[in-house]
Design a protein that fits this description.
Elements (H helix, E strand, L loop, with lengths): L16 H19 L5 H20 L9 H27 L2 H8 L2 H13 L5 H21 L4 H25 L1
Helix pairs in contact: 2-3
Length: 177
């Protein structure tokens, strides 16, 4: 709310669209985490692209024009490939790690988006955006630190040692019999 400043005269209801986008992104992340336990990341990416198709057609068909330049085709193919790869990477990350470990990496988008806005549009964010961003980053650091009761490396090490002990005990039992 610090960034949106709904109390100011310049507030527009369209300013709430990023809040809705954040809600839907969080929902998609949760659904990805739950479905990746049953399906492969490749299957999830396929379903995502199939489900996106009707929305893209609905918004794109009214002003649709076939590109005539091969550079535009190459750019469109590259964007499509990178989108599919990014979604596959997200699904793969959720399939091999806990969401509390993966989700903080999602917040790298914030400084990268600000940097892209500066490079492409020359836009320097206002002061309240920096305050809001600092609050988001601080809360992610706090929650990540609070939720991490044990070091994941230590947990994996202990599991590997436990499995090695079990194998060693089985071998001893087989040799004694």
């Amino acid at each position: 709310m610090l960034v949106l400043q709904p109390w100011s005269d310049g507030f527009m209801w369209a300013s709430l669209l990023p809040v809705a986008a954040a809600f839907f992104w969080a929902s998609a992340s949760l659904m990805t985490k739950f479905t990746v336990s049953r399906d492969t990341p490749t299957t999830l990416v396929f379903y995502l692209l199939v489900l996106m198709l009707p929305f893209n057609l609905a918004f794109g068909l009214p002003k649709f024009e076939l590109p005539s330049d091969w550079h535009v085709w190459a750019l469109l193919i590259a964007i499509g490939g990178l989108t599919a790869f990014a979604q596959w990477a997200i699904a793969k990350a959720y399939s091999v790690a806990d969401a509390s470990f993966v989700q903080p990496f999602d917040h790298i988008k914030l400084p990268l988006n600000v940097l892209a806005g500066f490079i492409v549009f020359g836009w320097v964010p206002p002061g309240m955006l920096w305050v809001g961003s600092a609050l988001i980053i601080a809360s992610v650091i706090f929650v990540t630190h609070y939720e991490r009761r044990q070091n994941p490396v230590e947990v994996l090490w202990e599991e590997a040692q436990h499995e090695a002990e079990l194998k060693g005990n089985k071998q001893l039992n087989n040799q004694s019999n």
